[in-house]
């Protein structure tokens, strides 16, 4: 059972990396390798919104993540109860 914990940047990275079954540093490297701003500046008619583009990119690099069954803390507020 995967629980997405976004209570801090570190926790979000650790729980997301667990979902992708990779070390946190590998996920961080993949995330930092993409410059979304420049992609949309170079191609302003990009038909995919930034969150979907980012997800597609990370999944292409790391594979599909396992299913998250619960989420805790999102934007500083609780999303689901424990």
Total strand segments? 2
Helix content: 40-55%
Shape: elongated
Quaternary structure of the protein:
single chain
Describe this entry's structure for a reader.
It is a single chain. The chain is mainly alpha-helical. It contains four helices and two strands. The protein has helices at residues 9-19, 24-32, 36-42, 50-62; strands at 2-5, 68-72. The chain is elongated. The model has no long low-confidence stretch (mean pLDDT 88).
Features of this protein?
82 residues, mainly alpha, two-stranded parallel sheet, 4 helices, 2 strands, elongated
Helix/strand layout:
Blueprint: E1 2-5, H1 9-19, H2 24-32, H3 36-42, H4 50-62, E2 68-72
Parallel strand pairs: 1-2
Helix pairs in contact: 1-2
In summary, what is this structure?
The chain is mainly α and 82 residues long. The protein has helices at residues 9-19, 24-32, 36-42, 50-62, and strands spanning 2-5, 68-72.
């Amino acid at each position: 059972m995967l629980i997405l914990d976004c209570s801090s940047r570190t926790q979000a990275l650790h729980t997301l990396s667990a979902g992708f079954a990779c070390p946190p540093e590998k996920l961080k490297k993949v995330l930092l390798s993409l410059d979304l701003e420049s992609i949309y500046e170079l191609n302003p008619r990009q038909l995919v919104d930034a969150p979907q583009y980012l997800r597609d990119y990370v999944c292409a690099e790391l594979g599909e993540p396992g299913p998250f069954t619960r989420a805790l803390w999102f934007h500083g507020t609780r999303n689901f109860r424990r």
